[in-house]
Every structure is written in C-alpha cells, then in structure tokens.
Write a structure and sequence with these properties.
8 helices; alpha/beta; binds zinc ion; 19 strands; seven-stranded mixed β-sheet
C-alpha cells in the first residue's frame, strides 16, 4: 500500500472510510454513518444507517426520534465492506466509543472525544495501539491541566455548606456532565436531594435506564425557595443567567467545565464558583495517550492542533491536522 491510511479521506463534513463507504460523525446527512457518541456536534439526525453503541442510539432517539440504527456492543467486531470495525470505550460520556478499524493490515483508531480520568457514569478509555491515531485536541495546549475532580467537588460542597440560606446553581452540559456531577457528588458522600432544571430530565432518566443511579433528584418546578435553600441545583449552562433562576434562593452561580481554567470565560457567564471539571483529555492526557499507543502517525481534529502537532514532531511522530467543520467545544 502506498501512503499510510490512504483508504481514509478527510473532508470538511467528516472522515470518510472508503472501503466501507461510511462516514464517521458526519456533519451532513449520510447514507451510512458511524457515530462515536451522542453529543449534538458528533451525532446528528437524518442519516440512513447508523452504527453506534446501544447507549448512543438511545441518546439519538431521545433527540431525533426513531433511528435506523444498528447497535454495536463494546468489543464486538463486525465487517463492513472489507473493513473490520470495533467500538471500544472512550471514557467521555455514557456510550462514548473510539472506532477501531482494520484494513489490509493497517489499524486506524478514531478517538472521538475522550478522557482518561475515571468517570462514574461511563466505561474507562481503553488504549488500542495503532498505526494512525486520529485524536481530538479540544484542550491541546500545555496550559490546560485539569485538577483532580474530587477536590473540585469538595470545593463545591464547601461552598454549599458555608451558606445554608442559599443554593449553589451548577451549570453543566445536559448530556454527560450533569449526570457526572451528580454521581461525583454521591461518591463524595453527598446524598441530599439535588434539584434539576427540566431540560436535563430526559437525559437523567436515560442514564438511570442504563443503570447509572443518580439518587434523590427533584425538578425545580414543584419546589419552593425555602425547600431549595442549602441544596445543589443543576441546570444547562444556557440557563445560568436566565430569568428561570429567579425562582431559586439567592443562587451562588457555579459552572463545571474545562474552560473554567480561563478566568475570562468564567467572567463572561458571571460565574462565581468556576469548577474545572472536563470530559475531555487535558494536555497531559493527550500526550500520555499518544505515548502509550505509539502510532506512526497522529491526525488531529477539532481543537488546538498546533501545539500537539509540534509535540508529536519532537517525538518523531508524523502529525497533521484535519480541518473538519461543525465540531463545537461546548460539550467540555
Ligand atoms: Zn463530546
Ligand atoms: Zn467533540
């Protein structure tokens, strides 16, 4: 075979796997789509046949209605055209997968979004050594080093307990981050009622239907200010500064995101308590993963490609960036 990975094409609307006639996370409707995970910028509606984990298919059905989906379990191998395909855990959100493809003796892994830290709501990232690693680089700058999750959760609890007349309102992405924050709080011994904004109710239920138990949750709709004082309230980031929050007892505004490392981002959203909790790999996780997989080439998608490209080159790994459009970085 000529160039490594010559059977994979990068187009603005996604990665095209030619011998399988399939697209990975395409931003336009395609006849055959392989979807890494349920976030809206990766899993769009309107495709013909969708190959995804059962959890991702359920998330897509929750969003877009019935899918002509084929579920693929972690570690199951299927043949599409001349390509062997396997989905392995990516540790990003419930059901998130890396896509491992083998064709004519070459192995290519598409990471999708991923992280290496433990997350009580999803299976841990599984490293698969490969010839080409196609990686995300959302936090691909050395300045991004996420702190320990437990200590961020402790800061949240400390703030909550220091002012029992107020509530702490935590902005968290509706798919994944919200449920993870709830589970991390439970693991830290916080078993009080947690209140939630209606926009995350269906995803909470979906997580519970896959056995991720979230404990005592209540909709803010039926609660009085008095009941919510001294409690945590979870809402999507967009609701943080919304009229809706006026029904809450003098909320302390918090937000859980890798971007909270940047003070300006916290200020933009009037966030009083920034919590640096991310569902993406930080700089150390990105470079550790590349070290571990020992790929011949690294292809870099949505994020800050330059620094990671440079790091690869100084470690004798060929690297290039793929200019895909339509990926956002809000699902952090
Ligand atoms: Zn994502
Ligand atoms: Zn993404």
């Amino acid at each position: 075979m000529a160039r490594l990975g010559s059977w994979i094409e990068s187009h603005p609307e996604g990665i095209y796997v030619r011998p399988a006639d399939a697209w990975i996370d395409p931003s336009q409707p395609k006849q055959r789509a392989w979807i890494t995970h349920g976030h809206g910028d990766h899993a769009r509606g309107g495709h013909g046949a969708v190959l995804a984990t059962p959890e991702t298919l359920a998330i897509m059905e929750c969003r877009y209605g019935p899918q002509s989906g084929q579920p693929i379990a972690y570690d199951e191998t299927i043949q599409v055209g001349d390509v062997e395909v396997r989905y392995v855990p990516a540790g990003h959100v419930l059901g998130s997968a890396q896509i491992v493809m083998e064709y004519k003796g070459e192995r290519i892994v598409v990471s999708g979004d991923y992280k290496r830290r433990p997350d009580p709501t999803c299976a841990c990232f599984v490293p698969v050594p490969c010839d080409i690693f196609i990686t995300e680089a959302t936090f691909g700058l050395p300045v991004f080093r996420h702190p320990d999750t437990g200590s961020e959760i402790d800061r949240l609890l400390h703030r909550l307990h220091s002012d029992p007349d107020r509530c702490v309102l935590v902005g968290a992405y509706a798919l994944g981050k919200a449920q993870r924050i709830i589970c991390e709080l439970r693991e830290r011994g916080h078993h009080d009622t947690i209140y939630f904004h209606g926009a995350i109710e269906r995803l909470n239920q979906l997580y519970e239907s896959f056995g991720i138990l979230l404990g005592d949750l209540r909709h803010t709709g039926g609660a009085t200010k008095q009941e919510m004082a001294g409690h945590i309230v979870i809402c999507p980031p967009g609701a943080l500064n919304d009229r809706w929050s006026r029904r809450l007892p003098d909320p302390v505004t918090a937000m859980a995101s890798g971007w909270m490392r940047i003070r300006q981002r916290a200020r933009q959203r009037n966030v009083e308590l920034p919590l640096v909790i991310s569902d993406h790999a930080d700089w150390d996780e990105l470079t550790m993963t590349i070290r571990e997989l020992e790929p011949t080439e690294v292809w870099i998608t949505h994020g800050r490609e330059e620094a990671l490209k440079h790091w690869c080159m100084t470690h004798q790994i060929k690297a290039c960036e793929l200019n895909l459009v339509g990926y956002e970085d809000e699902d952090d």
